[in-house]
Structure formats: C-alpha cells, structure tokens
Amino acid sequence: MTPEHPARSPEPLLEARPAGRHALLVELPDAERTAAFHAELLRRRAAGTLPPVAEIVPGARTVLLDGVRDPDALARRVAGWEIPPNTADDGDAVDLPVRYDGPDLADVAARWGVAPDEVGALHASYTYRVAFCGFAPGFGYLTGLPPERHVPRRATPRTRVPAGAVALAGPYSAVYPRATPGGWQLIGTMPDPGPLWDPARERAALLTPGTRVRFVRVEDAA
Amino acid sequence: MTVKLTTVRAGALTTVQDAGRPGHAHLGVPRSGALDAPAMRLANRLLGNEPGAAVLETTLTGCALRPDRAVTVVVGGAPCPVTVDGRPAAWGGPVRVPAGAVLEVGTVTAGVRAYVAVAGGIAVDPVLGSRSADLLSGLGPAPLRDGDVLPVGRPGARAAAPAAAPWPAPPAELVLPVRPGPRADWFTPAALRAFTSAAYRVSAQSNRIGLRTEGPALTRAKEGELPSEGMVLGAVQVPPDGRPVVFLHDHPTTGGYPVIAVVAEPALAAAAQAAAGTPLRFTLG
C-alpha cells in the first residue's frame, strides 16, 4: 500500500512507534497536544468508537496503547484523526489543600527570585492538569507551572519523602501519595494525603490523567 | 470450614500470585502476576481451579507449608523435590496433604520458580481485583515470612483436568524473539546488530521487575534521558550501563530509558525460569 502524500505535507502531529506485537507508542510534539490526544482517546473509548485497548498510558509526550489486536491498523486510524485542543474545563477537577511549609521553600524562592513566603501564593495561583502517573501508584505528574517556575531536582535525593509532600521538579508539580525516597524540591504538605491513593475505593487514584488540579492554601495548624 | 496454610519455611522469596492487575497502568500500578503464567494456569487446571486462581510462586529454594485440614496441591513450574512429612510425593501432579502434615517444596533442580497451587486457591484479600504481590509498588500481600497463615478458598465444582499437558523444561539456552522499537533509533547501527547477534547471559541481579543481562554494552546514538513514557511487558530497556533489561510483570509503568525492542509475551515464561548464567540470545521475530 502506498499512501498518497500531498506535495507539501504539513509537519506530522503524531508519530506511531511500534512497541511489540500488541502495542503502539504514539508520540506527540508537546505536552499540550499529548493531553489533547489522550482526551480524544478517552472520548472515543466512551463513545465506543475505539477498538478494544487494554491500557491507555499517557507519558510526558507520548500515549501508550497496550493490549491492541492490530497495532498497525490502529496506527493508520489515529493518523487521520482531527484532534481538538483541550479547553480549560475539560476533565474532572479536584482541589488539594496545602500548607506551604516544605524544607526546600527557601531554595525554590531563590530560584524563582521571590521571597520564601511568596512561593505558596504563586504555586497556588496556577491551574494544573495531571499529565500522567508513574513512579508509585497514584503519583501524578502535574503540568501547569509556567517555564520561569521550573526548577531542577535536588542534587542529592532524600532517602525518605513523607506522604503528602508537595513537590516540584522540572516542569512538574506533584504530591507524594506515600512515603518514598525522592529527589524533588519540597515546598509544602497536604495535611491529609489519604485520599490520593485508596485501592479500596471505586476510583483508587484521586489524580488520574486529565484531571484538573488546584492547590488551595491552608494555614498552619500550629 | 476453610483450610488454613501455615508457613513452616518461607524460602528465599515466596509470593502470592495470580493473573495480576492489568488495566491500571495509567495510575502507575504495575500489572504484576505469576511470571511463569502458563505454569500457574496448568497447576490450577490440574486441581480444577480457575486458571488464574492465586498460587504461591517460590524462588530457587521452595517453601514448606502445613495445612490444618487435608488439602490437595500441585507443585509445578521449576522441577524440585516434593515431600509430605518427609515421604517423597509427586511433582507436577496432584498431591494429597493430610491435616497437620508438612508439604516440603525443595530447592529447584533446574529453573528458578516453582508454583504451589492449592485446591480452592489462596484466598487472601484482593487489591484492585488481584491477590498478586507487586514487589515494585508494594500492592497486595507481602512476601511470605515464617509463621504466616494463608487462607484457602473453597474448591469449586469444576473437574480437575487430566495431566495431559507436559511441563516445559527450564531453558538450557534462553532465546527471546524481539520486535525492534519503540526507541531502536536511539542506538547505533552497530549496537542494533550486536543486540540480535551477541551472546548474553542471564544476570544474578534479575528479579520480578526485570531480567537483567550480562554481555556487550549497547552504545547509544543519542545521549540523555527520554521524557517519561509508558512501558510494556517484555520491553527491553537499556539503562546507561548499556546492558539490556527485559521488563517482567512487576515492571514500572513508565520509564525514561530507551526501549530498543519488545520481547513477545509467550517467551516470558521461559525467561522467568532462566537461572543466573543461562546463555541468552535475542532474535528478530
């Protein structure tokens, strides 16, 4: 089969890469279009127009479609989709209460060029979206920080980051659902992190890909 | 009245496993489940259990169990001596264990993982629909410790299948068929040739997360890390040391090292039974 190419083909918006006999890794140019493609997949699955896919796993600039009967056929299909950009009110929304009391507040403030007590107000002023999950069950990578607020990971990871720690690394913000080692910059604490991950609940993870998130500042209990 | 199994000897690493918890990878939840899934299913069929009923997966040194009521078990997967109160019993077929007797599953004579299925299945509480121990993220029951007591489910009405199917022998040489991608372009042409022509060995550092290898390091054509992306079962990830790692059932759902190729899932059962030092080749196919 030889596909017809127009004389001046536009930049392809997605590239489908093989990932074994039953999966497809679809790569997109940036996080926004990845989120839009993921939302389109969920819409089509809900509408019953997507062939059976066992797992839809977004990444930073990819979506993995795993457990697919015919990956080549699906690759041809998605290449032809018109994908609308996400709008601000797509997806579920959750508010996460935060005390801005993290041990790296001063370091982050220095990188942002603001006073330490301004970090919380700034961090809580942006709206975020869960781009993807990974690292641990219920750990969501949240996009939404403007580029001037991106900070590197700590040079030396901590052997233990407590559950509920609100953290920054690269373009992402996150809340640790449970205590683990971690290299992110800690700026705050979610007072009750229990709801982030509860496998006994119908929806085990609070932060699923596509969910919109706002951080709501709460005062110190002390 | 249900049976309880007391762990007399937990062995090096014994975990409860079933068919795992697929469908939650987008939440960061590994699939988990028995690494030698055909062995789990065969052991269950021989008892009349559902094919995916929870079993025990042992590692090299087996385990010993004492039921408080008579039960029927099947020990299969990696070949190993089986005794009941010191008397030799069948490997690979049903064994009746009287109340209070000790079922001893010995050290494997080949392979890595023996499976102990019990009529009725291991009945620990499921988490996200599965009783599997996930050693990456800690979901499901913890690995067995001496003294742990496991509940057993009620045997179903299903008839036990006759022992028609043979148990495959653990591989003397592990041959893993791969399809290149999704990140084969991160490697030099020489590395891609070496990957499917060089002699590797199974590393002793292998575990339920990944089969690690010893052999030629694969040189990248690109440096740096990939932005995190979804990982499939059987993905061959190449960390900075250049030695391929084959992702097994407890693998992380996303990762940042390039995946040069993916192993076909049916070949992973043999990978689960390949002892440290086993010669290993990757072949296109």
UniProtKB/TrEMBL annotation, chain A:
Query: What are the residue boundaries of the Carboxyltransferase domain, all occurrences included?
Result: 14-207
Q: Does the keyword ATP-binding apply?
A: yes
Could you tell me which Gene3D superfamilies the record lists for this protein? 3.30.1360.40, Cyclophilin-like
Q: Which UniProt keywords apply?
A: ATP-binding, Hydrolase, Nucleotide-binding, Protein kinase inhibitor
Q: Which GO terms describe its molecular function?
A: protein kinase inhibitor activity
Q: Which InterPro entries match?
A: CT_C_D, Cyclophilin-like_dom_sf, PxpB
The superkingdom of the source organism is Bacteria
Supply the name of the protein.
Answer: KipI family sensor histidine kinase inhibitor
UniProtKB/TrEMBL annotation, chain B:
Check the record and name the Pfam families matching this protein.
CT_A_B
- Record keyword Hydrolase present: yes
**Domain Carboxyltransferase residue range list:** 26-284
Q: Which UniProt keywords apply?
A: ATP-binding, Hydrolase, Nucleotide-binding
**UniProt-recorded name of the protein:** Biotin-dependent carboxylase-like uncharacterized protein
Q: Which organism is it from?
A: Streptomyces griseoviridis
